[in-house]
């Protein structure tokens, strides 16, 4: 089955895309052709889009699905009148929430992505800069300044996870790659032991690791299955010695790994506060 899906908004369309993707993921037997249509903020653009909907319906033999975040009722009505299955995402949430809060919504587009808190925006930018400057163990002397430190073998997902933590949570993230030198001495530097309370190890299936490394260095010993198996086996021995949480990136997304890290950090923080109260 082929269906065309439009993600439509009078602003960036990020919200429509994100929530729409989550809903579509539950229907993996359907082949969705996804079309992004941000800034549909005039009646002329809305009417032009309804024409594209008609063309998609003729091509697929079924009306397209539209995920929209349209706060302008006049423009939204034009889209609803097109040949489509129209889902207004805000409609399901804003009105009931306004009723519960007893406050009328502002109905301003782009609010969720606006810089409403400059201090938090600045914190995120600083965190991103920190993650980039402390990638791949470039500055291990900065580990004490990091909110979280990741370790793992090459291509296990350290860098993208650090950047995600910085961008979405404003956390200063650093990472340390376990290398041949570490394997030869059977351990990692003392600096990692010193930050165990915020250290997380990443593990990945050797077959999956081979595929990733093969894309980077095709046909190299670095990408061979044996090398991947050896690297993972030795890394697991080091993790056991470190005694830190081990997160598997084989089938889990960056978002899932990051949420586990955030939860663990919060639990450690709460545990520390309880311990401090007992001492007092």
UniProtKB/TrEMBL annotation:
The keyword Lipid biosynthesis does not apply. It catalyses: [pyruvate, water dikinase] + ADP = [pyruvate, water dikinase]-phosphate + AMP + H(+); [pyruvate, water dikinase]-phosphate + phosphate + H(+) = [pyruvate, water dikinase] + diphosphate. The keyword Glycoprotein does not apply. Its EC number is 2.7.11.33, 2.7.4.28. GO terms for molecular function: ADP binding; ATP binding; phosphotransferase activity, phosphate group as acceptor; protein serine/threonine kinase activity. Keywords: Kinase, Nucleotide-binding, Serine/threonine-protein kinase, Transferase. It is an enzyme of class 2 (transferase). InterPro entries: Kinase-pyrophosphorylase, PSRP. ADP binds at residues 152-159. Bifunctional serine/threonine kinase and phosphorylase involved in the regulation of the phosphoenolpyruvate synthase (PEPS) by catalyzing its phosphorylation/dephosphorylation. Belongs to the pyruvate, phosphate/water dikinase regulatory protein family. PSRP subfamily. This is Putative phosphoenolpyruvate synthase regulatory protein. The lineage of its organism: Bacteria, Pseudomonadati, Pseudomonadota, Gammaproteobacteria, Chromatiales.
């Amino acid at each position: 089955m082929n269906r065309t899906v439009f993600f439509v908004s009078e602003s960036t369309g990020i919200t429509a895309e994100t929530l729409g993707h989550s809903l579509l993921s539950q229907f993996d037997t359907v082949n969705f052709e996804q079309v992004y249509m941000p800034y549909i903020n005039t009646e002329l653009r809305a009417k032009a889009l309804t024409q594209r909907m008609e063309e998609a319906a003729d091509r697929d033999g079924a009306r397209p699905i539209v995920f929209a975040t349209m706060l302008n009722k006049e423009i939204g009505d034009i889209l609803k009148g097109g040949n489509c299955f129209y889902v207004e995402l805000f409609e399901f949430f804003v009105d009931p929430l306004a009723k519960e809060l007893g406050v009328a919504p502002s109905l301003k587009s782009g609010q969720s992505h606006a810089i409403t808190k400059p201090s938090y925006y600045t914190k995120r930018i600083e965190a991103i800069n920190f993650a980039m400057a402390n990638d791949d163990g470039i500055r291990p002397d900065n580990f004490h300044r990091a909110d979280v430190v990741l370790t793992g073998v090459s291509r296990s997902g350290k860098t993208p996870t650090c950047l995600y933590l910085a961008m979405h949570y404003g956390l200063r993230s650093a990472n340390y790659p376990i290398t041949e030198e570490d394997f030869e001495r059977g351990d990692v530097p003392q600096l990692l032991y010193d930050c165990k309370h915020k250290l997380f190890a990443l593990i990945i299936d050797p077959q999956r690791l081979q595929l990733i490394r093969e894309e980077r260095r095709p046909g190299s010993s670095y990408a061979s299955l044996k090398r991947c198996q050896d690297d993972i086996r030795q890394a697991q021995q080091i993790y056991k010695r470190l005694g830190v949480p081990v997160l598997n990136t084989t089938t889990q997304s960056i978002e899932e790994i990051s949420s586990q890290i955030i939860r663990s950090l919060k639990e450690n923080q709460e545990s520390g506060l309880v311990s401090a109260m007992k001492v007092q």
